[in-house]
Amino acid sequence: MADYVRNLWYMAAWDHEIPDGGMLSRTLLGEKWLIASLSDGTYAMLADSCPHRFVPLSKGKLEADVIHCPYHGLGFDRTGTCVHSPFPGPPPAHVRARTMPVILRHRALWFWPGDPNKADARLIPDFGFVDRDGMQRSHLVIQGHYELVTDNLMDLTHIEFLHVESFGVNGSIFAGRQSVVTDESGAIWNNWDMEAVPAPAWAAPMVADGARVDQWLYMRWHAPAAMALTVGLSRTGTERRDMVVPEMVNPHIITPETSTSSHYFYDHEATREAEVLARKVFIEEDEPMIEAAQQSLGTRDFWDARPAILETDAGAIRARRRMMQLRRAEAADEAQVGN
Amino acid sequence: MADYVRNLWYMAAWDHEIPDGGMLSRTLLGEKWLIASLSDGTYAMLADSCPHRFVPLSKGKLEADVIHCPYHGLGFDRTGTCVHSPFPGPPPAHVRARTMPVILRHRALWFWPGDPNKADARLIPDFGFVDRDGMQRSHLVIQGHYELVTDNLMDLTHIEFLHVESFGVNGSIFAGRQSVVTDESGAIWNNWDMEAVPAPAWAAPMVADGARVDQWLYMRWHAPAAMALTVGLSRTGTERRDMVVPEMVNPHIITPETSTSSHYFYDHEATREAEVLARKVFIEEDEPMIEAAQQSLGTRDFWDARPAILETDAGAIRARRRMMQLRRAEAADEAQVGN
Amino acid sequence: MADYVRNLWYMAAWDHEIPDGGMLSRTLLGEKWLIASLSDGTYAMLADSCPHRFVPLSKGKLEADVIHCPYHGLGFDRTGTCVHSPFPGPPPAHVRARTMPVILRHRALWFWPGDPNKADARLIPDFGFVDRDGMQRSHLVIQGHYELVTDNLMDLTHIEFLHVESFGVNGSIFAGRQSVVTDESGAIWNNWDMEAVPAPAWAAPMVADGARVDQWLYMRWHAPAAMALTVGLSRTGTERRDMVVPEMVNPHIITPETSTSSHYFYDHEATREAEVLARKVFIEEDEPMIEAAQQSLGTRDFWDARPAILETDAGAIRARRRMMQLRRAEAADEAQVGN
């Protein structure tokens, strides 16, 4: 279960999670890493385990962009080089901390666990919309494999069941038309169009009594599990750009913590009410369901458990297949290198 | 440790544990199952893991004898057939939930995890005595392999040590005579007869001062671990049917929850006092001892740990040997099917 | 990780941890053992798992130097022989509890998990200094492999970082000279001499203003991990025996609890202040660091994790190498016995 695809950008944290000039420790892809905020506004990412006696460097001090081990005082720079020793003589050159490329983009830190020479920043998916006013960016951990979370997000029909109390939906999703497309950037879109349906409860006050609306839910997916949801609503018969409310786009970015748990990065309006709703949906509704699915799977691989496939899984399955292809390609590359 | 014998009736629950028209989720033989109470008074038993995305069906709704998944709304009937889909078109016929035969008998639900064609209801052991007034039927979980619980029950000499405070015993059990017999139904009886011994504390007021009594403790065992204890007491020199108090029979039915934990189904008089005593005996006295034995065994098989065998183990060992024969027979059958 | 060297003396407990005429249960080298205080002032050590049904004998009763099982009443003497049965007839001679040699010395109980014929009491390292007035002997458990604790103690330079708040050190340790020597008893000494350094904060009132001192920290190690720390301080230019305060010696004796946790036996002055300081240093400073190192190592062997080696590790590495030699020698002996 732990054969992560390595040559991809993964999200490590929101920028506000790392204190200015400070460090954050986080388990990512099964290992502890620290993210350090440096004086030039960039970041460094080091294995959070001193190469000398394996203690967490993040419990030490960050001074002048050098991370000092809390145990015996060795200091490491952003490249993982030991640049300070408390003892006479030069720092031991053979002592090196592991590092990964890390880049700040769209208020998020992105890291590349594979070959650093392939870490092209242009491959980071576009989440430019994240950087807007009035939003609060949040993080939680879900006790399930990251692809179970992808399944959840790439099939939004579950909102009629799991989130029926939170969203006041009315069954109109079942009248929707699903389309799954892959765009030129390689993103997979799972699109759900509902035409001439009754307005959802939250929008009813904004449309004429009894008037029909068109609604769309478009989920964009980039490997490994960086998703963006677009929600739109227009009066039926009008142009789609004549929307009842402005189209909303939100990030749903998933990063494996371990083979059975996932980081979930999302945002919501910076109000107490929106925060409470988001937590209800994610923590009380989605999380227990995904965790129960994980427990049911246990240590089995998803496919070994012979899941039934529904038509509505088309987007989720295309994403899973993409990840499988990437895993196989990396395994083949490694086998070749081994020869 | 998890090679359960499958072609046997196991007890899943007392009938009152399943709400009318509702569901109960329970881990049995290492897997989660749900028991649903249907409108015709019978029950259904389905794997508590939706065949689509493995979430617990028991968290969904039971409506008109159809179990609706809480995640994406598929509905399953008692045969595990998908009979409802929220989307247009027929329900997906290839999506099936696993089921097991389940029968209500003697206020208990009995399930058959093996070949359904062999699930003959006449093989359910007779616990007819359970259905009597004034009794409360209870359930607890013990953190130990079910055969460690069998050992406990098939050698009641431990009441002189483990339950000495609860039962006010007086050592007379050591003057007893043990006999182990197999009856025509295949049940193994571990019988303990104490002749001309002082009356136990609880019976003393009912016999003449200093008069001797005959006491008997008969434990009946059916595979895998369905036991019934008969306790009797008569004045020495009288016929056994001339009892001081009516003979008492109580169920002690054990079902594996996992390879290291067990369901324990028992009953007691429906008084607060009897409930407190039963909980003291089972939860404070037996449970910690069996749990400690399990921890000491760890993942080792019982026989690999080379237990010392005492004469008083005769009944317990005969039951263990029976289970071993059944396991071997099933393994041989499976090997043959494989050829 | 669990290939303990068996032909060595390990410390099990301080004498005051075992009640007079009572028992202590403790996990040692991955197994539960009981230590019983006998009427002649000596001790017995038995596997804390009855050979009959594996329950903890320590939950039973110790009467007249016989340990009675709480489950079915078998009684065992100090040799592990079953000397009592509640049933008619002689006790079952084939039922034996495992034992280990155990000796009281220097207020501590020492046990020998290997071949009892090799258990020569003269091999117990000398901790005679432990038996002095005004000291409190203590015990705690550290969630790390015992050799990670050895590493900690055999490289005291960490006090400048990890204990900088507790000990008010001032960097003078970096001016020290390390020497690692093996004495005729086989003990490895990691010695740290600091000459003509400023007095540490605690000693400043006792030396003339601005006067320099010589300080020494000598850690003595015996296999597997029985250590003693000598701390001394004299005015620079005087003889070392002309000390500012009397030389202090303290035990730091480590015994594996499991392959990832360790017993730590230490002492300190019998004052509330000294107790608080010791707990701060061991529990708040050392323990979390060693536990984090263990978590980072996970199930990997120390050497498989390719630790960087520093000059200051010389003592720790010599101790690790000694343990490796002892392990290999025992493995070779066992292989030979197998032939």
TrEMBL record, chains A, B, C:
Single biological process term from Gene Ontology: methylation
Keyword Cell inner membrane annotated: no
Molecular function terms, GO-annotated: 2 iron, 2 sulfur cluster binding; metal ion binding; methyltransferase activity; monooxygenase activity
Domain Rieske: 9-111
Protein name: Vanillate O-demethylase monooxygenase subunit
Keywords, sorted A to Z: 2Fe-2S, Iron, Iron-sulfur, Metal-binding, Methyltransferase, Monooxygenase, Oxidoreductase, Transferase
Keyword Ligase: no
Originating species: Novosphingobium mathurense
PANTHER family: 3-KETOSTEROID-9-ALPHA-MONOOXYGENASE, OXYGENASE COMPONENT, IRON-SULFUR DOMAIN CONTAINING PROTEIN
Stretches assigned to coiled coil: none
UniProt superkingdom: Bacteria
